[in-house]
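Predict fold of Serine/threonine-protein kinase RIO3; 516 aa.
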Amino acid sequence: MDSVGVAAAAPDAGPGPAWQSKCPWGAPSTTSISCSLADVMSEQLAKELQLEEENAVFPEVVAAAEGPFITGENIDTSSDLMLAQMLQMEFDREYDAQLRREEKKINGDSKVSISFENYRKVHPYDSDSSEDEVDWQDTRHDPYRADKPTTTPRRGFIGKGKDITTKHDEVVCGRKNTARMENFAPEFQVGDGIGMDLKLSNQVFNALKQHAYSEERRSARLHEKKEHSTAEKAVDPKTRLLLYKMVNSGMLETITGCISTGKESVVFHAYGGNSATEDKVIPPECAIKVFKTTLNEFKNRDKYIKDDYRFKDRFSKLNPRKIIRMWAEKEMHNLTRMQNAGIPCPQVVILKKHVLVMSFIGQDQIPAPKLKDVTLSSEDMKKAYYQILNMMQQLYRECNLVHADLSEYNMLWHDGKVWLIDVSQSVEPTHPHGLEFLFRDCRNVSQFFQKGGVAEALNERELFNAVSGLNITADNEVDFQAEIEALEKMNEDHVQNHGKKLSTFSSDGDPPIYDE
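Predicted 3D structure, encoded as tokens:
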């Protein structure tokens, strides 16, 4: 008798209590049918048994997957998988809503917005989203935003046959040029060309690019000029720092304001401090002369400095901005010479780069008037004339200088006498144009005092001979200037032959000293 028959003949268990059939540790109510080893090893049987177990445990899952998603009316909460899916979907909805709130908070009313689309977890079967309520900011594709031009592959064309499009296509190039405008400087307003699907030709784009570069260079030049050159009041950041240091060190007590402006410098008034420099006492009132670091307003200043042997070797090695410092240094040396000779002029206190501090000619912040602005009596006018005559001779003989810009604009009337100022352009008589500058000074002085009613005033040729000690006898001004140029040429030839400055001007002894 086989095993199957034996199993079938086995007596049934007697009826037991009711709790035994429900007890998980009790004996099973039905007995399993025995099968052979071949049936146990069959894959088809294993699959059938697996499907029977899944249908018995999850009877509703298959139907839900095949049909529409379960709504609130047919939800079966007996399945753990179904509950997990519902909870996950609700969590995803709350997470997406939080992302939308963050987007709205960050973007606000800005035209440029960000999107968290890549972080959303909205399910395709979400029934809350409707086609009528679509937020275009939450989608990957915005119909109101134009597509950026696609790049051309390396082979230089796309498409096949009649639909081939090369990189030289007019539409493709136009869109690329429009996109390239975004690389212009931020100051250059290009607008929303991509949004309007604007197509720029190469000619228009090149013109715009050239204009953008020109504007960028121009703005850079304006910025550099504003930062590194002195403006109308000659106070750029570097100059302001120098003035701050003078005040903080105690050299100056305070700077009150501007008292004079010119083509080469601006003069400020200041009260002197308590501290004293090396061997000089700071006067109660000072004049701060700030030389302008821009070369646009006084372009011919190199005419006065490049041929001066004191600065000739240094002139060719400096850039234009350092020439300004040399210009200030030159005025300091000239003022020192005049002060040592006893000529009334401002007293030098200190020189810092292009800032020269001098004594103030005036009183109580009121500068002394220029000789052209003051009204003098005939006696004072005559006195001023002889004083200037004496100062010109001292300047030429003792200081070995020519003012080179002497006029009623550079002479002040203070305490009953004339003061000379603005000697930064003064040169020595051996300068290639020194005698020409002297003759021009004599002409300005002679014309001013002749118009002022001084009968003793000499003409320009007589005044030139009186100051220089030369005896140039010419009947007219043209021949007089020709002899001056000949003397300068003689001196220049001497310099080239001997390599040093020596006055070759013939004179009949020392010039006469004119006094009242």
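Residues 157-225 form one domain.
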